[in-house]
Amino acid sequence: MTERTSRERLLPFLxxxxxxxxxxxxxxxxxxxxxxLEKLRxxxxxxxxxxxxxxxxxxxxxxxxxxxxxxxxxxxxDERVEFGRAWLSIAARQTPTVxxxxxxxxxxxxxxxxxxxxxxxxxxxxxFRRTFIHVLLPDLELSRLPHTQLRHLHKSHDSHSYLLxxxxxxxxxxxxxxxxxxxxxxxxxxxxxxxxxxxxxHSRVNVVDADGGIxxxxxxxxxxxxxxxxxxxxxYKWRVNVTLISAEELTAxxxxxxxxxxxxxxxxxxxxxxxxxxxLFAAARERKLSNLKSDFVANVSHExxxxxxxxxxxxxxxxxxxxxxxxxxxxxxxxxxxxxDRLAAxxxxxxxxxxxxxxKAAYSFSLTSPGDVVTRAIEACRVRAQREDVELSLSVQxxxxxxxxxxxxxxxxxxxxxxxxxxxxPDGRKIVVAVTLGDSAVQVRVTDEGTGIPAEDRKRIFERFxxxxxxxxxxxxxxxxxxxxxxHIAEAHGGRxxxxxxxxxxxxxxxxxxxxxxxxxxxxxxxxxxQRSA
Length: 534
Fold this sequence. Notes:
Structural class: alpha+beta
Largest sheet: 6 strands, mixed
Low-confidence stretches: 517-534
Helix content: 40-55%
Shape: rod-shaped
């Protein structure tokens, strides 16, 4: 049994650190996962934005290349007089951004333009032709250009932006260069709006030039979720920027989610600590209660053993016939009756307290005069008070109201308070019991002339199995359940109980009975009869 008790006491000291370690590990893992999840969210947003930027850049390149292929399929290199006529007939519908088509003889000394077809007015077409010969042609990558590969030149000159698509071809033994001249302003004003102005609740797009100036679209917020991508093959000096409109909301949502996770981790830590505290407190309280119960059993056993021993001893004296005279015989019989009453009262106390502990205490309330009930209880205590040479006096206030109460329970409460006064105030020569009307309650006050009760013990002595520390010094017998029973009875009657200092010394125990009906007068004769002393 001792070994098992030791194991039970050591068990909390083993599993409490284990729980703390588990909570710390859980906390670290949660923090780590939270940071990883945040990085994964940001990475997924960046990847989604990059994919969207690639798609929008490829969309423009694809549209321009489609027009380039249409031009290539409609232009005949061997036709000089009617060069580009077939293309001009469908240019407005199928190649709206192509402004003109040129054919250059690469084998001629000056790389002459041998054919030119344009949708632009003649002055504008001639201006472009001169700009192409003197400015743009030298920038074409002709030496490394395979015969079938489509290439583009994107260049700014004299505050104008130019986009050229060109192929190298052979015809009748000569090498030619076919060039498609794209109208960049038309691309900006017509093609870009048709490609990027669709309603999108989640993203916003603009196009900027090499210097960062906005060519198309609104300004974008400079956030971590804005991604730019250059056009790969056509307008390669420009860049398309894509940002998520909900980037700030997403960032805030991520921050809120992280804060929530951190709060939940902190809350779980607090709950774990609180749980451990409660468990440790409950374990300590259980051990304390177990010790109190052990003391209670020892005290009750001692209280039962003493009157039984006296009863047995004096009964054996009477049985042996060695009593000297009738006076001694009567004295022994009185002791036997007194100790029997004391034994019966203790057993009743224990039984009543057991009912309270099991929650089976039942009270039978009836409309009764509290003065009469207290008077009967005091009368039952007078014999013991006289034997111990203590003056027991009772004072009942006139015109007390009748109260719904359990007569036996109130008598038990008075018995216990008077018994405490007799046991714990042996030096006192007087006990005063007073029944008065307070604020909506009848007060029963029991005052002794003992040494008093320390302030730190005044609340605890009404707990079960608890006895004041001063009682252990006086070696006074007691079970530790009397005052707990008084408290339960008072609360069952809608009242309460407490202890206060008496004047000039001693203690006063008070319990109240809440009035439930209007006051009714008691006769003055009854009041005067109740106010008497032993």
